[in-house]
Write a structure and sequence with these properties.
Length: 188
């Protein structure tokens, strides 16, 4: 179902897989966002300032809530299923939905890593993604040095397709990125 803006509807039930669920960001997630801002990589790849103040963290939360309204896609808080504690963020960006493609990106706070939250979040995102009839492919872009992220992608069933040389500027430098994808299973 689409909204009046042409966006697919926000999921009526939070996507869930294993030990996580994907939900909208809440004001109380600011503490997690502050932890994310202290990680060296989060600020390098997005709009979260490094060592964010509580006000800057709240502004980032507001930007995540607006991603859907702007038509960019779905920015989910990754929350532990049992406690609802936010442990990271996952975006499903659908700017290329009319071409059958979406991109996903994710990050888990340093204190919550090692519990396969990211793989569960990706699996939950894929389960939701395949409810969008026009979507046939979800892509991930991962820096080659990021072996934890490549393992996460593979655990979630994504397949490596190749290397995109000098694909994106990150922290002022052109970077190579690996491309991974998950494809909708054809109907039998």
């Amino acid at each position: 179902m689409e909204t009046s803006t042409g966006m697919p509807a926000w999921p009526s039930t939070d996507p869930q897989h294993g030990n996580i669920r994907l939900r909208a960001f809440r004001d109380e997630d600011v503490a997690t966002v502050i932890e994310m801002s202290r990680d060296e990589y989060f600020p390098a790849i997005g709009s979260l300032p490094g060592n964010a103040s509580p006000e800057q963290a709240m502004e980032w939360v507001d930007r995540q809530r607006n991603r859907y309204r702007e038509g960019a896609g779905f920015s989910f808080a990754v929350a532990e299923a049992g406690t609802d504690r936010c442990v990271g963020q996952l975006g499903l960006w659908i700017r290329e939905l009319e071409k059958g493609r979406a991109q996903a990106g994710y990050g888990i706070t340093p204190s919550a890593r090692g519990h396969r939250f990211a793989a569960s979040a990706l699996l939950a995102a894929l389960e939701f993604a395949w409810t969008l009839p026009e979507l046939h492919r979800v892509e991930l872009h991962i820096e080659p040095w990021n072996t934890a992220s490549t393992r996460t992608a593979e655990l979630a069933g994504f397949e490596r397709e190749g290397l995109l040389r000098s694909y994106m500027e990150i922290s002022g430098q052109r970077r190579d990125l690996l491309i991974y994808s998950a494809l909708r299973e054809p109907k039998a």
